[in-house]
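Let's practice the habit of predicting before peeking. Look at the sequence and jot down your guess about where helices and strands might fall. Then scroll down.
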Amino acid sequence: MDEKASGGGLPSEGGRGPMAQALESGDPRQVGPYRIVGRLGAGGMGRVYLGLSPGGRAIAVKTIRPELTHDPQFRQRFAREAAAARAVSGAFTAAVVDADPYGDPPWLATVHVAGISLDDTIARHGPLPESSVLALGAGLSEALQAIHTAGLVHRDLKPSNVLLAPDGPKVIDFGIAIAAGSSSLTRSGAVIGTPAYMSPEQLTGGRAGTAADVFALGGVLVFAATGEAAFGSGPSLGVGYRVVHDEPGLSAVPMGLRTLLGRCLDKDPDRRPTVAELLAEFAARILPAPDARYGTDTVTLALHGDAWLPASVASSVRRAGEAGGAGAAGGVPVPGVSDAQEAYEEEAYEEETYEEETYEEETYEEETYEGEAYEGEAYEEAVDPRVSIDPRVPAEPRVQPGRLGQPWAPEQPQRSGPSRSEPSRPEPSRSEPSRPVPGAVGAPPTRRRVLAALAGVGGVAAVGVGTYLLGRGDQDPDDGSDNGSGNSNDTGNDTGNDNDTLKDPDGVSAPGKLRWKRGTGGPVAPALLATNGLVYAGSKDGSMYALDAETGKPRWQFSTGNGVYTCPAVAGGLAYFGSADYHLYAVDVRTGEQRWQFSAGGEVNSSPVVAGGVVYAGSDDGRLYAVDAGSGDRKWTFAAGGRIRSSPVVAWNKVYVGSEDARLYAVDAATGERAWAFETDGDVKSSPAVADRVVYVGGYDGNLYAVDCDTGELRWTFATRGGVGSSPTVSGGVVYVGSDDGNLYAVDAVTGKQKWKFTVGAIVYSSPTVLGDDVYVGSKNGNLYAVRTDTGKSRWTYRTGADIRSSPTATDATVYVGNDSGTVFAVSR
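Done guessing? Here is the structure:
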């Protein structure tokens, strides 16, 4: 699909009414008949605004960048596609209501949907149950049927283009799809889509018809059922390679869905079911005795309302609907005007090109000619030396873990085995680990190497990638530093373009100034650990890095078979950490040499803890494992009712850990027997903290809980206005915790009363670290904050330029943190 003909690459507009950002001086105040009242986001094609019709209806207005209209045939192609999109009508689509292909600039308007995207929903609440996935499949099948009936193929169906609204799921951005059968619209040879959800025929330059949407639907439903993409995550080239050549990962898909979704993901488009067949199958399973009088309209009746969703998801959907409902009456909320902004669960920063779920959800946006990508000369000035990319090698390396840690070799292609290095030899450490932050997103490949790799990979070479890559360095994330006091001190803004060590020439930096930074091959999501002269950082590229704390230079790198989302526990000269390749590893801290590996039944995304010669770690298989620290032999296993991504804490002969079954567990450290379970109203991904015989933990129901360590009885509850995935830290009688509502809270550890609140303005995934008189925390807006523990006032802010999901670690002189660009930063305290 020629992006210039379609509006492809613009961000999903639905559900963003309550999150509209204030207009800037250069923004239009009127587009066609629509009064513009706020910004919703931006993409490669232009900008999306929140508009009001003359009657007060909320509308998403997409304006096209003027320079794209220089193609003399652009407006004609845009007009044809807009006309086709307006023909789409269905209960589960966000309708295109207006367009002016000949305007200055051209624009397209769609119904503004007050809902939350599927990717945000899964990130917040975890995978949907089988019954909800069946219902979702029915609604999306009906939506695709309406789109196909109008002669369109969506070609970019993905979780962020599916909104959950009070009246059912909605498919958006089909207005940027290409008219089926109009080959003139694709003569440029560009391939537009989202690699994790693109069909093999799209990736290899073949004809992508309605069966391509079925493939994408299968991928979306796998994501809804498991929380993971069917072909994994990581750099887009690796994901695309796996889509074309590998079988989908369906082991976590419920048995009742596995066969049907496997058929949707068949490599051969002719063997995939049709949308009509899927709709009939889904309808039969959610409506065992459909009423013949209504036909498939019974699906619409079944999905109207939120009874088909889990209670926690339904509550979020209702809140989004209520927050966005003001738009229908003309009172569209914008920052500083409506409480809906504060009540909503996300922020519009997500609408910039950093989309939440994963880099692989970025759209390929570069125009290509006759299947040829632009030559590498155009990228020379912005080359990112961080990663070497070979699209024939899976992005998350599926190799046998090496016996030795790999040496740092950024200019060498990824290899299938380890090689020896000459590492420095710090003394063994016995310190305890930091707490982890679950979740991560994929990292962009380098520019020069992408083009070089594309030239030798046959069909994949048709994919246009230039704008996708160049656009990542153009972001200007909101610094989010307003804490209501006017006391913020923004001291830095890192562009992320230089990934080598940047040592301060004087050796000493002012507070909040960069000392050095070091790139890895993927987003750095887990908590960092600084101990005995080393900084340990796990990366989604599948490696654990040991960096020199003073210079940032790598001492060793140990590669696993998948992403490393855990913070290591260091004890007895070994570093223990988990990987998404289903293994727990023990590695020598001096050499990076593997001592042992332990196989779990699922991804190990729970950071381990070591106590009494035993390593404790949770797994996505819902089990807590106790493993001998010296041998790697299993001692016992405890089964929870959901995935364990919370990291355990050991105190008073008990192991405390949260689970996605909404419970906090206390387990006997010696036997693995359950002592008690405390039930919350949301997933417990937060890792507990223990002090004075009280265990503190956050829940995705928005609460911070204080629970008696011995009895499991509730001491107190503190309510925030968003999910609490951030792990609490207790210091000096105060509990510090972040929330998805964009705040860092300080709460009295005894009474549960708020002492102060520091407003970040973006989701706080990061768990706070306290040292001295300061608490340090990162945020989704890419900022690292230093906040006074006594007053909650800002001391300084350092901008990294990409989402911070990792939790900082601090030494006497330096704070260390990682971000989604794959960079580890050392910032002077």
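How did you do? The mean pLDDT is 73.
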